[in-house]
Design goal:
The protein has 500 residues and is of the alpha+beta class. It is built from 17 helices and 17 strands. The chain has helices spanning 3-6, 10-18, 38-44, 48-51, 56-59, 63-79, 126-144, 163-169, 188-204, 248-276, 279-290, 296-327, 340-357, 378-394, 426-429, 441-447, 453-463; strands at 23-28, 33-36, 88-94, 100-112, 115-124, 148-152, 158-161, 206-214, 220-231, 237-246, 336-339, 361-365, 373-376, 401-408, 412-419, 467-471, 479-486. The longest helix has 32 residues, at 296-327. The protein is elongated, with a radius of gyration of 43 Å.
């Protein structure tokens, strides 16, 4: 004990120790309590009268640690070696009610009247443990979040970046942040905006806005960003925290919706045009019938005009109704064994007038003398192939070639239609089966139809448990469509499955 303290009157010295925030306990080499301060009474629940003379293990040491305490004391008395002496350590303690809680402990040795004694200062650190536990859980959440979470100083130098943030800007998990400035991670226009946001956050507490960061591959990622200022009690900003969310997917969805909206507008314009076209011939036929007496020849001609245009309008409306039913899930298909070789033959028969009118050469390649069975709706399967053949005929210049193939793999039946026509632009190849998509809108008008055939083919293929794909080397290089359907398998016992 320092000399100036040792000169103090004992009652005053005890009063000073009792007023300390830490609990002070003094024990002898037999581990029995010699001194027990007021804070010790508050912390552990034992009164001074209850504690004095009792073994310290009975008062504050949990049962599981008492034997270790006794061994440690005996070892120190023999050797003078003690791992806890003169250090601050965290250890479990127990109060009178049996409650276990963490304490910070420091032990020192002294000599009183020639006897070795040990003084212990103890502080309850339960709240610190709870705060640390909360901080650790918060850190786990921050590390697990898919958003960029980081802290910077007021100059924008990185202090912490979570796992997702490091991946976003191309920092290795083990890479230190010394010399890492967020300025280098933004495009110039975005950094100017972020600087403005930092100033706003320091003045108002927070800022949010749309920015962008530079990914590891150099690509500019559109982001939404929040900046928060952490301030001290005096209102001075200590550091800035930021949350950055990758908005790429949302931007792509928004652009896809805008593109579909544009395609829808173009489709509606074409639909109006196609529905208006038959009106002129019908009006002409009506005018012929109104002009007084009509001979047999003029009556026949007017009837043919009206019949042809009504049939054309009926086809348009049927396509519209089919697409409407498909998109709402209202079409149900029959499920029965169907031979795709026969389907191909029926489709060729229906498409042949258009193929011949355009003077195309049609090649059909299918298994001879055998069936290729799938489970499905024969009428709808024929409709799918007719759509592909008619498209090939319409979009192939006169005198071109169309090839229809039917074959099978171990598990799938395939129907392919290849042409030498005008092809599909590369930028539209991925959208060719979407409703409202028109690769060649002017061609659609010249050939008739609304361009809904491919959307119908895709939806019908899916209803049959299959798919359809399109390939093309680009404009002027033709195209190829392939329908894939589950092959009907033989059932155990030699029968046939009734479902694909």
């Amino acid at each position: 004990m320092p000399k100036h303290l040792s000169r103090l009157p004992r009652p005053l010295l005890e009063q000073i120790i009792d007023s300390a925030l830490d609990a002070f306990i003094v024990i002898g080499k037999d581990s029995r309590v010699i001194a027990w301060t007021r804070q010790a009474q508050v912390l552990f629940g034992w009164s001074l009268q209850e504690a004095i003379g009792r073994h310290i293990g009975e008062l504050i040491i949990p049962p599981a640690l008492r034997e270790a305490h006794e061994r440690g004391m005996q070892h120190y008395l023999r050797t003078g070696e003690g791992p806890l002496l003169g250090r601050r350590v965290e250890i479990q303690a127990q109060d009178k009610a049996g409650r276990l809680f963490p304490v910070e402990l420091s032990i020192n040795e002294a000599e009183i009247d020639g006897e070795r004694v040990f003084s212990a200062a103890l502080r309850d650190i339960s709240e610190a443990h709870r705060s640390r536990s909360r901080a650790e859980r918060l850190a786990e959440v921050v590390e697990a979040t898919p958003d960029f979470v980081g802290f910077t100083d007021l100059e924008g130098r990185a202090l912490y970046i979570n796992r997702a943030g490091r991946q976003m800007i191309g920092l290795r998990p083990e890479q230190g942040l010394d010399g890492v400035s967020m300025r280098d991670k933004y495009p110039a226009w975005a950094y100017e905006k972020v600087q403005e946001g930092m100033r706003h956050a320091m003045a108002e507490g927070s800022w949010c806005g749309d920015t962008a960061v530079i990914a590891a591959n150099g690509r500019e990622i559109p982001t939404s960003q929040v900046i928060l200022a952490s301030k001290d009690a005096a209102g001075h900003t200590l550091y800035l925290s930021t949350i950055i969310r990758d908005m790429t997917e949302r931007h792509e969805v928004e652009e896809a919706l805008r593109a579909m909206d544009r395609r829808k507008d173009a489709f509606l314009a074409m639909l109006a045009h196609e529905l208006r076209n038959p009106l002129a011939p019908i009006a002409t036929a009506a005018h012929i019938l109104r002009r007084g007496p009509v001979d047999e020849q003029r009556l026949q001609r007017a009837s043919e005009i009206i019949g042809r245009q009504v049939a054309y309008m009926a086809r348009l409306l049927d396509d519209l109704l089919d697409v409407s039913r498909l998109t709402r899930g209202l079409i149900r298909i029959e499920r029965a064994p169907v031979d795709l070789v026969a389907v191909a033959r029926d489709a060729v028969e229906q498409s042949l007038p258009l193929v011949q009118a355009r003077r195309h050469r049609l090649h059909v390649q299918s298994p001879e003398g055998e069936e290729l069975l799938v489970t499905g709706d024969r009428t709808r399967l024929v409709q799918m192939v007719v759509n592909l053949l008619n498209n090939a005929a319409r979009y192939t210049p006169d005198g071109g070639e169309i090839t229809l193939t039917v074959h099978a793999t171990a598990t799938q039946a395939l129907i392919g239609v290849r042409d030498t026509g005008i092809g599909i632009p590369r930028e539209l190849l991925g959208h060719i089966f979407e409703i409202f998509t028109q690769a060649h809108p002017t061609m659609e008008r010249s050939q008739g139809g609304l361009g809904l055939g491919l959307a119908l083919v895709k939806n019908l293929a899916q209803l049959h448990g299959g798919s359809v794909t399109a390939t093309s080397e680009g404009e002027g290089h033709g195209s190829e469509f392939c329908i894939r359907l589950p092959l009907r398998q033989a059932a155990p016992g030699g029968g046939m499955d009734t479902m694909p």
